[in-house]
Amino acid sequence: MNNIGEPWMWGVFIAFVLVMLVLDLFVFGGNKVHKVSVKEAAIWSLVWFSLALLFNAGLWWHLNGTVGPEIADSKALEFLTGYLIEKSLSVDNVFVFLLIFSAFHVPPEYQRRVLIYGVLGAIVMRAVMILAGAWVVREFSWVLYFFGVFLVITGVRMLVMAEKVLDLEQNPVLRFARRHLRIAEGSHGEKFSVMKGGVRYFTPLFLVLILIEVSDVVFAVDSIPAIFAITTDPFIVFTSNIFTIMGLRALYFLLADVADRFHLLKYGLAMVLVFIGTKMLITPWYHVPVQASLAVIAVLIGSSVAASLIASRGRQ
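Given the sequence above, the corresponding structure tokens read:
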């Protein structure tokens, strides 16, 4: 069963996401300037992780009563594995976000608003990419092997370039924006644009938002093919991705101050991509069970985190 998402399930989930975004923006202080503390970030990270698990439990309960326990167990495991893969790969976003904010000297109290709008844009872009990807996979199943080759190459490239520092000034998107947009230099608080002499100018914070959105598209190109190695069910792919995106902002503020202690995590993420790509390529001869995939990914991520903590403690 490759598609469990009934129309009402899509509607309920999208309504849930919209309600949570409204609450975040207008009830929980999303529209107020403040620095997100580690405690606040930890609480929200726990909230989103718990909501993802509750959603998975509800999904299993619904499927168990409608299509049987076998499919319910399979889909619940697919969601959990896909969610953990997306969650792991999203850590790389955190490193890039930190680099962007540092390069533009964005104060912590303004970073939250940028990431809120970044989440809104990411949800729309992910939805389009996932639905398009699901259609392509359904119509041309051979594209999964292309995804496999792409993930292996991307993983190897990440291993080779793990220690390379990105030069944002050479980013083609940033150079294009600076060439074609009126940019008001200096700090303008949390505003994305200002009026000067009756003319609209964009602030450096708007350039930061553009880079955040573009970086999410780049990471989606890696992460979405990765989850298609676990499941081709568009509802599972979409929901696991959206739960990851909704919790990304909290994850950033949770790790921002200690990101340097996880410098070896990039190697673990790169090996995860290589493993997933290899899994897709060997499917005609051997199908790696979802449980085995989950175990391998957990070992790779756990080992790289442990190695990072040990190495950073040694340096200290």
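The chain has one domain: 7-315. Try to locate this feature in the token string yourself.
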